[in-house]
Amino acid sequence: MSFWFHGIIGFGDKVINLYGYTLEGLAEFLLANGQKKFNAVQIFDWMYVKKARSFSEMTNLSKDLRAFLNSTCCLDLLAVLQHQVSADGTQKFLFGLPDKFAIETVLMAQDYGMSLCVSSQVGCNMGCAFCASGLQKKNRDLTADELVGQVMTAEQIAGTKVTHIVVMGTGEPFDNYDNVIRFIRIVNDAKGLAIGQRHITVSTCGIVPKILAYAEEPVRSNLAISLHAPNDELRASLMPINKRYPLKDIIEACQIYFDKTSRRITFEYLLLSGVNDAVALADELSDLIRGLNAYVNLIPYNRVSEFAFERTDMNRAMQFYDRLIKRGINATLRKEQGLDIDAACGQLRLKSDR
Ligand code: SAH
Predict the structure, then answer these.
(1) In the predicted model, is pLDDT for residue 27 greater than 80?
(2) 239 Cβ closer than 6 Å to some ligand 1 atom
(3) DSSP3 helix / strand / coil % (the chain, rounded to 5)
(4) Is 28 a catalytic residue?
(5) Whose CA is nearest to atom 20 of ligand 1?
(6) Element housing 91 (H / E)
(7) Which of 120, 270, 342, 347 is the best mutation target for the ligand 1 pocket, counting ligand atoms within 8 Å of the beta carbon and taking the most?
(8) Nearest Cα to 338, choosing from 196, 198, 169?
(9) Is 172 tagged catalytic?
(10) What average pLDDT does the segment 52-68 reach?
(11) CA 248 to CA 242: how far, in whole Å?
(12) pLDDT > 70 in the chain, percent
């Protein structure tokens, strides 16, 4: 694990951003560097509850420890390259990373709280036919501190507390599994940001081995699967990942996930006019997921200029929805936000290379 690595590289090397540590990881890091383990709780409290911006503010730590932290660690947030506020209150941030890359993060005011949509990678390799994020191939995974940095920086700039997190921005979270799981552990920690496990959702295009791994995680955050089609032929034409992990395997993994966690799964279904929105496909979808404790979130398509896909009109969307309900499948039609600032689903993309 990386805290051993950090322990060995010693001083003078790359400065360690403490937002990348779980509480346990921080304690191990302190120990490996001749410090006292129990200070980790105090440091965590300063970082996430008192929102300290420097180690010198951490007045209940010894001078010695503060000097050690100052010389080896940092609490850097992300650089804010752009901050847009939509007419509906949705906020989009373009964050600069320590290297040349930039990522987008979206903050949405919901009736249940403030929900932050975080990115998990710079670009994405999944190549879904309809998604703007995939236009830029993956440059790299985001580190845990960059994932946490999105939350801390958005909170600071917007002057608000993030209450819900969806890992639905640019990237495939299960293609960056370890960092995403570490991120969830950090933000969920009761001694830190304390964002409840039921308030955190990870959305995947269906990487089956990682769905199975996720079922074993101690922090029981929610799972959403981007389905978008009820049969392999159609799904593979929209989502290349389906050639590797066909629907049968995904559904089987979902059943195992549910047996282990008793948590309801969300299936996201993007409605693309004339492509996957026929009522017959609603029947097929019902048959596919019947018996799973799941519900379908129907998503209106947000246009991406590079692609020819069109949004399904409201009438047809309602027909699809009604058919699911009639067939005994729970479903919702997602309300969209942030369209005017290109912050809506599937519109996040690499804007600048700085
Ligand atoms: N890679 C993950 C998470 C990022 S995408 C995943 O595939 O789930 C988040 C959601 O937005 C996915 O359901 C994705 O299919 C959907 N999406 C992609 N492009 C979209 C668009 N143009 N309009 C609406 N939703 C889109």
Answers:
(1) yes
(2) no
(3) 40, 20, 40
(4) no
(5) 346
(6) strand 91-96
(7) 270
(8) 169
(9) no
(10) 97
(11) 10
(12) 90
Tell whether ligand 1 has an atom less than 6 A from the beta carbon of residue 267. Answer: no
204 ligand 1 Cβ < 6 A: yes
The pLDDT-based confidence of 100 (bands split at 50, 70, 90) is confident
Residue 297 CB less than 6 A away from ligand 1: no
Bridge partner residues of 92 (DSSP): 84, 106
User: What pLDDT is attached to residue 136?
Assistant: 87
pLDDT value of position 134:
83
Cβ(314)–Cβ(87) below 8 Å: no
Q: Is 337 in the pocket of ligand 1 (CB under 6 A)?
A: no
Give the mean model confidence (pLDDT) for residues 306-333: 96
Average pLDDT value over all residues in the chain: 92
Burial class (CB in 10 A: 0-12, 13-18, 19+), 71: exposed
DSSP 311: B
Rounded distance from Cα 193 to ligand 1 centre (Å): 26
Q: What is each CA distance from 350 to 58, 218, 342, in whole angstroms?
A: 37, 33, 12
pLDDT tens track for 161-213: 999 999 999 999 999 999 999 999 999 999 999 999 999 999 999 999 999 99
